[in-house]
Fold:
Amino acid sequence: MGISLNQERRIVIIGCGAGGGTAAQFARKTDRKANVSIFEKGIYPQYSKCGLPYVISGKIPRFEDLIEFSEEWFNKAKIDLFLKSNVEEIDINEKIIKVNNNGKYIEYPFNSVIIATGAEPAIPPIKNLSQDGKFVKGVGVVRTIDDAKKIKSLLTPGKKATVIGAGLIGLEMADCLYEKNINVTVVEALPDILSNTLDPDMSAQIMDQLSEKIDIYLNHFANEIKHENGVIKSVSIQDRESGVINQIPTDILVVATGTKPENSLAKKSGCRLGKHGHIIVNERSETSIKNLYAIGDCTEYIDFVTKKPTPIGLGSIVVRQGIAAGINAAGGSYSLPNGVLQTRTTDIFGFEVAAVGPTLSCFESENIVTGKFNGFSLPEYFPGGKSISIKVLVNADSGEIISAQGIGDKAAQRINTFAGAVLGRLNIDLFKKLETAYAPPVAPTLDAVTLACDVVSMKLNRKKR
Amino acid sequence: MGISLNQERRIVIIGCGAGGGTAAQFARKTDRKANVSIFEKGIYPQYSKCGLPYVISGKIPRFEDLIEFSEEWFNKAKIDLFLKSNVEEIDINEKIIKVNNNGKYIEYPFNSVIIATGAEPAIPPIKNLSQDGKFVKGVGVVRTIDDAKKIKSLLTPGKKATVIGAGLIGLEMADCLYEKNINVTVVEALPDILSNTLDPDMSAQIMDQLSEKIDIYLNHFANEIKHENGVIKSVSIQDRESGVINQIPTDILVVATGTKPENSLAKKSGCRLGKHGHIIVNERSETSIKNLYAIGDCTEYIDFVTKKPTPIGLGSIVVRQGIAAGINAAGGSYSLPNGVLQTRTTDIFGFEVAAVGPTLSCFESENIVTGKFNGFSLPEYFPGGKSISIKVLVNADSGEIISAQGIGDKAAQRINTFAGAVLGRLNIDLFKKLETAYAPPVAPTLDAVTLACDVVSMKLNRKKR
Structure:
């Protein structure tokens, strides 16, 4: 690994996840002469973490299929990818990084560094979850290929699995385990599932159908694991209100209760961190330190609507931050919008769920009006219409559309339409008049998008009187 | 039919299509005391004309299924529906309409009238198409239930059908006939199919797949029918360039070459008409005559982007005009946006096709830049991704998104997202940064919507340099 002495720009990227890989590509495109290098502590080049549950379920055949860009690809793109390379320090003054390259110490010079170190699972305090610093056999998380391989190796039909956490990833895992004929129990500390994505009235709409397939304990936290010879046998969960404890026999326990940012390098370098340890970045993905960028799950930016600090945790945002950081680090100029929309979606137990912007509980003093439409995706007379539910949130003072939630047919694309409205700060008075595409086999004359807007608009007008 | 003498507002609607029916509903909602009456010359209450091809194909079982609101429904809603009632004159001065009610002459007073008389098929000059003022047996159009019943009665597998016109309705009919195992030929006078919806490069993308199922003659017009004993046997079509004539054996000929507005009442009343005879209306669906509104296929409004007069021909717009006219005629206030977006879609031969705004050929001197993305609806590693193609048109001077076209997976909902951008006059620099919803089973991190915007944005930036 030689250090070139000419005057090329040297861009160092730490971490080869979706963010790091994207940043490298866009740096490469922006400055074709720059030296672009990625240092990844693991053994895999860029792969899709979000795809892991679907290899566990068998929907995607092999873990290797998740690799989006191979070592050969990076080589062809003239991006130097160093695997098994743990960056131990960013020396801001000397402009070098210090790397443990598979046991070998090396220094590497840079003009700018993009930190894309991601996050690690946040593990709640469950008694006996680990022994000797390692999870008890049968306990796992879904963060890396190795994590997922461990879970997949445990699956045989009829086994019992418990998933802690009913967020997007927890329920995706529950769905994928269910697909493998595993008996699934989901335990959620909050009173609702998907509480970061849907308001309670929306998530309640799918609870019955989910409960037909899996057991769901809301308002419960897991407090202890029972194991025999280091193998999990059950998990005890406690009702947060009554205090009643339930013992759930469990062969496999998946913890999906969020993440904590991998911030050690940034911290050492003096980057400003947020309340929960995320690296604070701006619209250019710059940290508080010159020439230091950060992207992805280790960062926090602001929410587009509330302007409050928001940890980044969606692949869609990570990739967009990667575009910004890659272009900016390479001497170009790219700014993200003034906050993240957090457009998000999943497909669980046959329901497409999607949302953009904050849920209602994120607002305190704001004057918010909501409107909801439950109906069908096709005209009534046309066979095959599927259920669709759309909820819209509007700032009653400004009339601006601030968020939306959807469940059902093409919910994600319908929510993208609202994402455009939020991004463009469109007023409900205008947006409710949107002409949506109509043809009997495709959509009705007035789409659910429009009809939900009508409901909220009527409520707003009544308020004004 | 008594004439009430009290002081209620009297709203008369002429025509019970989707526009008239919607106007009646919204008039009813706006003024709960008003007298709302619909006069329909036909025998059916409000039904979906756009659904007719799908009853012909058998996808929708019965023609009666297309009835969206029955006589009982109108009765319950306290809307007086008079069928078989042909309005022969609107007396503006006396504020009465003169009606031929199934042979009986009646007069009916009004405060305002909403003309929703629709349109009739525009029949091209094809020799021998009619005998004694009637179509030759085997020739038909698809405008009314009776038209469609006639075509359906002719269908037996293996028969040969020719459809004149490769617009949305022509190709929907071709698809529905193909579904019935009819050998279908489509004849189009223009060099491309769907030329009002897609640019030639977009429509060319589906020509191969369509040509596997049906015969398509572009640049040809039909000039003569051959018949025996009043039954069609063939149609001769001529190449517009070479002049070569082809004889196409045909048992069924469907003419789908557009419509002409039913404007006779409006004309007699002195309403301003457009170049092709459409009733000119404004954003409140008002005609040039006070208290006279008009909506639907008999009208023209302006295009949102070009501001040029535009005949109305989409059910989605008709319904929205109905909302405006109904509310305004009943004393409320409702304005449509400053022009129609013409968001449109269809599903033909397995392709979802959609567009918003004008095609490229609608622009003359404007400085337009286009960008196109062809790709897949899911991440590469996820099985089941379907093809999606999106083309975006941007005004290079202002940066505004002015139109978009799509073919493939969820094209209509993706185009709705662009419709929002056009309506909100969003700039490509902002809109290309839209966070689209991502989850492996639903959509990739960068949706086709965003990637098409990236292409056009790059072209724009190159131009600016």
